[in-house]
Amino acid sequence: MTRSMENLQTPVGEVGEPILVIDVGGTNIKFGYSCNSQPLDFRKLFSTDALRAGDPIRALALMVEDVVAETAIAPRTIVIAIPGFIDTDGDRVLHAANIRSLDGRRLGDELGRRAGCTVLLERDAVLALTGETRAGVVQDADHVLGVFFGTGVGAAFMTDGKPFRGSGWALEIGLMPFLAEGPVPEGMRPDCLEAHASGRALQAIAARHGVPIDSIFLASAYSASLADDLSRFIRHQAMAVGMAAAMVSPATILLGGGVMDMNGYPRETLIGLIEGHLPLSETRRPLDLRWSRHGWTAVLHGAPAVLTEHRGRGSPQSRVIRTAGRQPSPESNQNQ
């Protein structure tokens, strides 16, 4: 857990309205605040296992109470980064592969009722990429593909400053059909990308070789069999990036996620493999590949954009995200 109580003074009024941002990951749930489009100096982590042990809405509500009590900042809006599929109503979690207790829950409405404020949901990959386009390494880029390797695998595509959504969950590539060799982590579909290129797949490799997950890439220097498994793992990640790029034709590719930040992770090897999966010679376009600057805190920079979309009545996202605990107006129903 990281936390600081300094620089938590928030301006009074609409412009300075603080947003509580929750990044729900497969391992940890991270909390932070955004105010005036800038992160406040506060971070707090909880174990995601709390959502698996009982009612996940109650568990999240207790975490929110704990954070608000510690900071004395009661938000009007909570933005949650969801690692999975969100329904077109912007409120119901359809499927979260690594947190199945959230499946089918109307998280925005249910948590909003408990917390007494508006709760907005966004896919974690979209929120992270939005943050990097607003305050990170791709501020000067357009047509940006972001691929993130954490406990699971997610991707998002930004063009003209807006995320591409398809019918709602475009580029949720973790469940993309993918046939590969190697053991599959327990409880995962064997024929999907996440089973072979995610943090959970990496944990399975570490367990099989009896090495700590935190030092798995360094340990490969002393084990040929481990090095072979990790080489295959990196190849699968490169294929994932190549396939996502083939679908959206990005001008820039952003890579991030906890796996990429691990000690000893072979970034240069990955870059070389990705180059082999892209039509660089055919298109005569150079590879513009960048690494995430902010890590998970990119969602703090991206959260204000979710609130702006919610308030912009003419935007597609605002037509499917509604204020938690309130019925949509007849006018909004006509827009849906």
Written overview of the protein:
There is one protein chain. The protein is globular and about 55 Å long. The chain has two domains: 19-126 and 296-335, ATPase, nucleotide binding domain (Nucleotidyltransferase, domain 5, 2-Layer Sandwich), CATH 3.30.420; 137-292, 2-Layer Sandwich (Nucleotidyltransferase, domain 5). The strands form three sheets. It has a five-stranded mixed sheet, sandwiched between helices. Strands 10-9-8-11-12 form a five-stranded mixed sheet, sandwiched between helices. A two-stranded antiparallel sheet has the order 5-6. Strand 1 and strand 2 form a beta hairpin. Helix 4 packs across helix 11 (298-311) and helix 8 packs across helix 9. The chain contains 13 helices and twelve strands. The relative contact order is 0.14. The protein has helices spanning 49-52, 56-71, 107-115, 124-135, 194-197, 199-209, 216-219, 224-248, 267-277, 280-283, 298-311, 316-320, 330-335; strands spanning 19-24, 28-35, 38-47, 77-82, 85-86, 93-95, 118-123, 144-149, 153-159, 162-163, 252-256, 289-291. Residues 1-6, 10-15 and 313-336 have low confidence and may be disordered. It has 336 residues and is of the alpha/beta class. The protein is 37% helix and 19% strand. Belongs to the ROK (NagC/XylR) family. InterPro entries: ATPase_NBD (IPR043129), ROK (IPR000600). Residues 309-336 are annotated as: Disordered. One of its GO terms (molecular function) is kinase activity. This is Allose kinase.
